[in-house]
Amino acid sequence: VVDTGLQMNHPDIVGSPNIASGWDMVSDPRMGNDGNGRDSDPNDPGDLCNAAVPGSADSFHGTHVAGTIGAAASNNGAGVAGGAWNVKIVPVRALGKCGGRLSDINDAIRWAAGLIPAEGADGSEVWNDNPADIINLSLGGAPFDKSRQNLYNEVKAAGVIVVAAAGNNASSMPLYPASYNNVISVSAVDAQRRLAVYSNYGEAVDVS
Q1: Of residues 88, 1, 10, the one with CA closest to residue 45
Q2: pTM for this model (two decimals)
Q3: Whole-angstrom distance, CA of residue 201 vs CA of residue 131
Q4: 1, 16, 79, 136 — which has fewest CB within 10 A?
Q5: Distance from chain centroid for Cα 134
Q6: What is the pLDDT along the chain (208 residues), one digit of tens a residue?
Q7: Is the peptide bond before 54 cis (omega within 30 degrees of 0)?
Q8: For residues 150 and 61, what is the distance between their CA atoms, to the nearest angstrom?
Q9: What angle do CA 58, 37, 10 make, to 5 degrees?
Q10: Bridge-partner residues for 163, per DSSP?
């Protein structure tokens, strides 16, 4: 899960056998909101951009996404159980305060896929011990870029499936990364299996 990281002290996360070691790929300490740059701690300290905006709050989006997939220590009476109970989720933090940099997201995807190492505190190479079968990207916004298409081609060639959100703009305009080739674009439906009012749609969508 390439996202904002995980709330490692969340009662559904603590002690969960479904969580594997991850990485923090947010390079800017200000954006990271955790006092440092890239390191081995994927904890999500919050991503609130402007506290002066009424109703604004930390999203803890990565915890939400990972929990929906199956990060939780199921049957503990707290939170959610998720859709897949016997999975290994590797949290890779690429988004922080006010968003994220494409360079961080790209490196997070490559590290998750086992294509590049991260750099340890002592300068050593740190490879992902659990390279992904599936990479989840519930993010988007940057326009098409040929170098990023090459990234997804490279990831597919490594045998990794990439799944991305089609977008929440109620639009048929392609959103990236979901609309790149070799990325599965997923739109949303409501409880009656109708297109959700906020969901993107159109030919770029592969599954709802």
Answers
A1: 10
A2: 0.95
A3: 31
A4: 79
A5: 11
A6: 999 999 999 988 988 999 999 999 999 999 999 999 999 999 999 999 999 999 999 999 999 999 999 998 777 787 888 888 889 999 999 999 999 999 999 999 999 999 999 999 999 999 999 999 999 999 998 899 999 999 999 999 999 999 999 999 999 999 999 999 999 999 999 999 999 999 999 999 999 9
A7: no
A8: 27
A9: 40
A10: 136, 184
| CA dist., res. 195 & res. 208, Å (int) | 8
- Three-state SS for the chain is CEECCECCCCCCCCCCCCECCCEECCCCHHHHCCCCCCECCCECCCCCCCCCCCCCCCCCHHHHHHHHHCCCCCCCCCCCCCCCCCCCECCEECCECCECCHHHHHHHHHHHCCCCCEECCCCCEECCCCCCCEEEECCCCCCCCHHHHHHHHHHHHCCCEEEEECCCCCCCCCCCCCCCCCCEEECCECCCCCECCCCCCCCCCCEC
Token pair belonging to 176: 């990236």
Which pair of structure tokens corresponds to residue 148?
């990023």
* Strand pairing category for 125-126 and 118-119: antiparallel
Q: Report the alpha-carbon distance of residue 12 to residue 80 in Å, rounded.
A: 8
